[in-house]
Amino acid sequence: MLKYLNGYDTQLKVQVQTLIDQDKLGEYLLSKYPKIHDYTTDKSLYSYVQELKNTHMRNASPLSKVLYDTKIRDIHAALGTHTFVSRVQGGKLKAKNEIRISHLFKKVPEAFLRMIVAHELAHLKEKEHNKAFYKLCTYIEPAYHQFELDLRLYLIYCDRSGELYV
Prior knowledge:
By secondary structure, the protein is α+β, with helices and mostly antiparallel strands. The protein contains six helices and three strands; from the N terminus they run αααβββααα. The chain has helices spanning 10-21, 25-32, 42-56, 110-122, 131-140, 144-161, and strands at residues 65-69, 80-89, 92-102. A three-stranded mixed beta sheet has the order 1-3-2. Helix 4 (110-122) crosses helix 5 (131-140). The protein is globular. The two termini are 24 Å apart.
């Protein structure tokens, strides 16, 4: 039932289950995040991601592509993906970095999108989900862990009731 909260504290799971039982999970999310973001095109998403990257990770490798991906449907497996491709071109090594975010996140609060983008940007420097990775995530977005929890609550809501933000 609370598969997105595996690894979280039992007390938190009880609180979430209480919200679900009282049919107040959607109300809770809407009170914290009443509006959705405006980055609904690939072009606006690219600008948004580039702005965050330039603000927090100027020295990181450049991004060649950022887009909403309709092929990322299984949000249980991934909310977004990052790819890094290196190839030799002439005498130089060329790298291409791409960030793809599930199209399901076109209609969510900006905080959720920012959390996903911070996560994918952190992968430019740290490939593994280790302590340094999460430190970089919280550098990019100080409320990263709260946004991640709330995004997980949103995913639980979507599984149970459908879309919250239409």
